[in-house]
Amino acid sequence: MSDLELLFLVLVCLYGWECACWLRPGSLAFITWLGKRWRPISGSPLGNQSGSFILAPPLPPLGKILTGNALPIFFSAAGVAPGGFNSTAGKSAAQVKFEDIKTVEAKGRKLLLNGAVIIKAASPGLADYLAGCIRSLAKLSPAERAAAIEKILRGTFDTKAIEERWEKFEQLTGNLHWLVNWLFVYVFAFIPALIWRLGLKMTWIGLLAGLLLLTVSIAIFFYRAHKAFYLKAEDERFTHFLTVMLSPVTSMRALDIVSRPLMETFHPLALAAVFCSPEKLRELAAPIWRDLRFPSLRGAGVASSAADEESRAAFRKTVENFLKRNKINPDELLHPPQPLDETCTAYCPRCLSQFMKTDGGCPDCGGLPLQTFKKSVSAVVS
Q1: For 70-158, CATH number?
Q2: pLDDT tens per residue across span 254-277
Q3: How many angstroms separate the CA atoms of 150 and 45, rounded?
């Protein structure tokens, strides 16, 4: 293998690394290649308890990627507590009362109350959003906070806001989308073909000039788009601007840097309602609704905080209204699974694991009581 071939091999490997995205627990990615069909991805086998790698569309037209997040914190009129609304969430930790909160900071992914880390959010943008929510709630009286919390929760399901934000994104990144695709073709097709035809010695100056023209153009359009959506992220924007301008493989994925955090403060179900089919929305909604109706008893020995109970009730109401607006009957999501065989007599209403006994509870859900297959959905407790 020649030095030139080795160089292109390194470029391919670096580009593959740029296509890899780290998805943290609680986040759901939505990926499209041609821009019409979106595919939700919750993770991959390549990861650990802290998250996993997923792959953005690596070939032209390069596609787009978005991420949505369930709120990783419980709100109540009295205070806040770490928690979350996803299938792995259990009981929350100790509540921090609003009157005890002196400072609220977001440092990277860390959300700090009074200088102590309360959670590590899925992204810096989400941590900053949560910090803003806490500051606004802290300024209100306890009587005013309930309505404010409901407004925050409804905002994470605002499909109209998602559609408007996406329309603005499409308008501002049209030129950027064309440029990153041209750069891909230029680096991986045009340059090798021209070098093979005329040799590196005769072409390298012109090829380098063309490469710089494309990367600088991409960096400029990237800077404008990033500033339009993330005005406060000045340091992050400048770092990305330099990297995009100086690294062709990063330039090819410049659109991902803008799009991935674009919807990070919205719930994945809201993104699914906008970008996915009704069938996929129903599929994603089922485990979330079962978890809300049948919370895990894991950690039940610790008293639930007011933030946990109040926020869960408010969130359940928000999700129920959202499902009904999208013509999904919540009770239909609670139908029992088909028995695996005639020996299965009971199931867990939360995770749908099946058992040959009717007494006891589901060990994976903290001992949650089982339901028999003969029990009707109308018997489900509220």
Answers
A1: 2.30.29
A2: 999 999 999 999 999 999 999 999
A3: 36
